[in-house]
Amino acid sequence: MADAKASQRLTVLLASPRGFCAGVERAIAIVERAIASYGAPVYVRHEIVHNRFVVERLEAMGAVFVEELHEVPDDAPVVFSAHGVARSVVAEARQRKLLYLDATCPLVSKVHHEATRHHAAGRHVLLIGHRGHPEVVGTMGQLPAGGIALVETIEDARRIEVADPSRLAYTTQTTLSIDEAAGIVAVLRRRFPMIHGPKTDDICYATTNRQQAVKAIAPGADLVIVLGSANSSNARRLVEVALAHGARAAMLLASAKDLDERALAGVERLGITAGASTPEELVSGLIEALSRRFTVAIEEISVTAETTHFRLPRALGA
Question: Which of 103, 123, 255, 289 has the highest CB neighbour count under 10 A?
């Protein structure tokens, strides 16, 4: 962006809450603490959270990211990502006697427990989520083959057939669009009135709060920028929510350096938020870059305050 500040004013509608959630903070802290405790390298199965800035910073500290356990040496510690893993991954780690630390978000673990509980009660489980996402792979991997089926869309919910509608349950990926998930659940409940669901919504508090904050800024924004990585499910959902709730345009950016100035043509009111795996410094960097071109006025719009905190594993002395 040009260094010369123009006289053009830009109002920034800054969504709050935004950025890191408690599960992401915990996962990153587990990797940092493991490196401090055991020394580098510490291996991490899959990106600890879906943000390249975070991953690259941890790599510089001594983390080595791999996709499968066979890439981890026998004498090295390994961390499982915040998205959770299938039971087979844990079994392999135990069989190899690897020192492993589980950074699965406690809210994802809650979904795992729900799926397992329903299966133990003789119910077939429907998982509402996106095929191939690591969280979905991990959740489906909690049950034997055939014990769980994926429902991605409302059309899937309308078409899916089950052997016994009286012995059926559903659970959801934690990072879905609230509105999209509600529509799918409504179809399932209409088709299968006896279906069992979670006592409270499986979509995590942070996903919910960030989507509600985007809904608050979207109607007044010419453009909404969501800071986050392209493989971040919750960040992509924020773009969709912004467009569905009144924003004239919305885009996903990894960082300020990826912003094409042409996207700001005619923009007077700019909404900014960040996915749950995006560090706040990327938000600050974007605002700083904008301030070099515009006279920026910031309006922070908050829908709630977050106080959730998750403890680290006992193995790390927490």
Answer: 103
Spatial contact of 213 and 301, defined as CB atoms under 8 Å apart? yes
Q: Which of 32, 47, 114, 135 is catalytic?
A: 135
Q: Is the pLDDT of residue 5 over 70?
A: no
* pLDDT single digits (tens) 275-310: 999 999 999 999 999 999 999 999 999 999 999 999
**CATH number assigned to the domain covering 106-202:** 3.40.1010.20
Residue 144 phi/psi, 5° resolution? -65, 160
Q: Is the pLDDT of residue 227 over 80?
A: yes
The domain spans of the chain are 9-20+205-302, 22-102, 106-202
Q: How far apart are CA 136 and CA 114, in angstroms?
A: 14
Residues linked to residue 218 through DSSP beta bridges, in sequence order: none
Segments in the chain forming alpha helices (H): 22-38, 52-61, 87-95, 106-120, 134-140, 154-159, 178-191, 205-217, 233-244, 280-291
Let me know if 25 is a catalytic residue: no
Would you say 293 and 203 are in contact if contact means Cβ atoms under 8 Å apart? Answer: no
- Answer whether 9-20+205-302 and 106-202 agree in fold: yes
Q: Yes or no: is domain 9-20+205-302 CATH 3.40.1010.20?
A: yes
Question: pLDDT by residue (tens digit) across 101-150?
Answer: 999 999 999 999 999 999 999 999 999 999 999 999 999 999 999 999 99
Rounded mean pLDDT, 162-182: 95
> pLDDT of 241-261, one tens digit each?
999 999 999 999 999 999 998
Q: Which CATH class is domain 22-102?
A: alpha beta
- Identity at 257, one-letter amino acid code: K
Q: Kindly calculate the radius of gyration of the chain based on its CA atoms and give it in whole angstroms.
A: 21
